[in-house]
Amino acid sequence: MPLFLAQFAYSPAAWAIFVKAPQDRAAASEALLKHFGGNLIGLYYTPGAEYDGFALFEAPDEATAAAIEIADVAAGHLSRNRLTRVFSSEETSGMLLQAATAPSMAPKNPA
Predict the structure, then answer these.
(1) pLDDT at residue 44, as a whole number
(2) Which strands form 78-86's sheet, in the order they lie side by side?
(3) Where are the alpha helices (DSSP H) in 1-111?
(4) What is the Cα–Cα distance from 8 to 50, expressed in whole angstroms?
(5) Which of 65, 66, 45 lies closest to 54 in space, CA to CA?
């Protein structure tokens, strides 16, 4: 299954709730992903960074990953998010081999 990185920032209201009532957000993320046929690899936090954390997950395809992200944002607890497709080293090797077959796109000097 394709791999995705979902970076997120919680809203101030969400942080206030978490401070008063800490919650296992990994369990909530896992339930959402399972609903769409995905799998949570890990949920990590990066306090003080541009984003508060990120989830690394698998989803059946790009459209499903986008639906997962939309459903999460629609809940209202995020202030910012970014979804990125992640490629394995094997996938990247395949891309490089495929790119090597491309015709040259370099500008040609007039002779």
Answers:
(1) 97
(2) 39-45, 53-58, 3-10, 78-86
(3) 12-20, 25-35, 62-74, 89-99
(4) 9
(5) 45
Per the CB < 8 A criterion, the answer to whether 24 and 99 are in contact is no
The token pair at 9 is 């920032």
- Tens digits of residue pLDDT in 57-81: 999 999 999 999 999 999 999 999 9
Take residue 41 and report the two structure tokens written for it: 């690899």
Helix (H, G, I), strand (E, B), or coil: what is residue 86?
Answer: strand
Q: Look up residue 2 and give its two tokens.
A: 């394709």
pLDDT by residue (tens digit) across 11-50?
999 999 999 999 999 999 999 999 999 999 999 999 889 9
Can you read off the two tokens belonging to residue 65?
């990953």
pTM of the predicted model as reported, rounded to 2 decimal places: 0.86
Please report where in the chains the tokens 């984003």 appear, as a residue: 51
Which structure tokens are listed for 100?
A: 């090597």
Tokens representing 62 are 């790009």
